[in-house]
Amino acid sequence: MGHWLERNIVEPGKLPLLLALAAFVLTFVVTRVITRLIRAGKGPFGNIKAGDVHVHHVVPGVILVVAGGFGALAGEGRGLGAALSAVVFGVGAGLVLDEFALILHLDDVYWTEAGRKSVEMVVLTAALVGLLLAGFVPFGVNDLSPEELHNRAGVAGSVGVNFLFALIALSKGKARIALFGVIVPAVALIGALRLARPDSLWARRFYRNRPRARAKAVLRAYHHDRRWSGPRRAVQDWIGGKPDPTPPRPLEHR
């Protein structure tokens, strides 16, 4: 284990990235445990307030991200300073992304259905950083031969093609596939070749006069969501806690 760590993490200079990822995941887990205890009214924890203002943990998170980021830029990339900056950055990023939905909606949606976006963003971030640690390079540059790497035109062409595939996948409404496709080009290629989601930019542009293609896209999206939405929500509930039930809307009297 020590030899593998030295060869694959320390020697390539990935130790700060590993420390940042570990701090990020640990901070998210600890934060969710504490917030769930607060929600259940258990333990010594409580919301932090400054007067009448509820101070969300995204606030210290932003401060830590800034401190860790500038600390990393000021250092030399190795040594104790780089490791400390990575840990500070990871802790801050965990606090910030745990309230990603709050930033997105500019509202306290932590325990609502919209708050699931925070859990999804944390999982995606951890997975992408894990791929970087495993040796994947954005746009598939790691797949090029030494001869191709010395050819600037070949590198630029490979990056351009992979970026185009990711962009097409994104325009087809497949944001997760596009994001992972930046790291793993084969994923972007799959997303670029498959049917677009019916509410995507691609569908509105290219399926407008193709009713059969649009109907097929609607049917595929329906079956996909029906198959995977339940398991995905169950995993999100297990990781981040089940959202509060949405109260029924009152009937309007006319």
What can you tell me about this protein's structure?
The protein is mainly α and 254 residues long. It has a domain at 14-135. It contains 12 helices and 2 strands. It has helices at 2-10, 15-40, 58-74, 79-98, 100-105, 116-133, 146-150, 152-171, 175-183, 185-193, 201-206, 211-240, and strands at 49-50, 53-54. It has a two-stranded antiparallel sheet. A hairpin with a 2-residue loop joins strand 1 (49-50) and strand 2 (53-54). Helix 2 (15-40) packs parallel to helix 4 (79-98), helix 2 (15-40) packs antiparallel against helix 6 (116-133) and helix 6 (116-133) packs parallel to helix 9. The radius of gyration is 22 Å and the shape is flat. The model has no long low-confidence stretch (mean pLDDT 85). This is Integral membrane protein. Residues 233-254 are annotated as: Disordered. Keywords: Membrane, Transmembrane, Transmembrane helix.
